[in-house]
Amino acid sequence: MKVITRFAPSPTGYLHIGGVRTALFNWLFAKNNNGLFKLRIEDTDLKRSTQEAKEAIMNGLKWLDLNWDQEEIYQSKRIDRHKEIGNELLRLGYAYKCYCSPEELTEMREKAKKEKKAPRYNGKWREKDESEAPKDIKPVIRIKCPQTGSTNINDIVQGNISIKNNELDDFIIIRSDGTPTYMLSVVVDDFDMGVTHVIRGDDHFTNTFRQKHIYNALNWELPKYAHIPLIHGMDGGKLSKRHGALGVDSYDDMGYLKETMLNYLLRLGWSHGDKEIISKEEAIKLFNLDSIGKSSAKFDIERLTSLNAYYIENKKNEELVLTIKNYYANKKNINITNNDLSLILNGMNGLKTRARTINELAEMCSFYIEKAPITLDKKSKKVLNNENINTLKLYYNQLSKLEIWNKEEIEEDIKMYCQANNINLGKLAQPLRAAITGKSVSPGLYELMEVLGKNETLARITNINN
User: pTM here?
Assistant: First the structure.
């Protein structure tokens, strides 16, 4: 049987880290088995679902290259099919109409609360005849769950899990307004889509036990389940925005590479020995559900950033230059000239080892994009006091006579000048860096001057002198 997995997000908010990891695991398992990865948008909650959220989900998956097979499926377009199956369950006697009023349901919950039991429906209309039904109540349709024994799920990740059937009530599958509930829609959609493996968070365990009863009633084959432990924050608490649990698009905005995100999320709860750096191509070959851990993984933003620095440093310079070009075009509305792109390429080795994010790298590249007169940050302005400006004026005369312009000759020239004039190297290098970059921190000074070229370097010093 061909392996088919699915990712089924609700478009009621951003695509968060936990959702992306679930999508990744489903995608990898399908690709590892030469199967299909499908996308289903569960948009039946019309009040909370938004077009913006739908687009954010799909754009996030596309950014990470987690492309789905076939067209995406919208659950809201399949309501008639869900209702058809709900009514079929009713016809077969596996479901029944319930005419309880809101007041009666409230009373049941309050009674359970007093008895310190979980709130549940007491099965009042399970065996009642419809002739007793009140005329002013529109009924819901409830599934008939077994009342004795237990339900077992042989989960790929968690092992054999069971629950006593008396802990599950007869849940609603069709609301009083005729619309199907999530519990029914998911089963029908998974069956119709041919889903063979359901890989999702372990917060769905109760849903799985409930949904199994629908599968059994319809005599449909149950898919295999793999429930993944949820991701927690470093403090062990439920992952939230304060832990860095933002929409995946936010990480793109903050300058994290997609390679970083995929590698990091893969290692959140899955491992292959001690291997830390795993490309997507390697992951497809190595991934299996048996290597998913049973305990919760912790999201560490510092570790993510460190991994991002690794991927930036090891990325080809030409690819980084293109990324920087797109960054300036899309985020700063600046089109970098081919000449400046050439400068950035020449200086990339000195830049990428210092950057932790693409945003940091792009800011460093501003050294090469700006032309005299350049802007100075607060620290650079402070460095360029009258004494230091005078030092630059005196050195300018010697530097302008330098004929061979490379970092070795520049370094030698600066050191010779400092030695001849009995001044500390930093006394000249610090204001020189400030004048040339406008910033207090930059790549290696000599390399930077070489890449900028003699004319631009002298022009920037001249601008300070004036």
Answer: 0.89
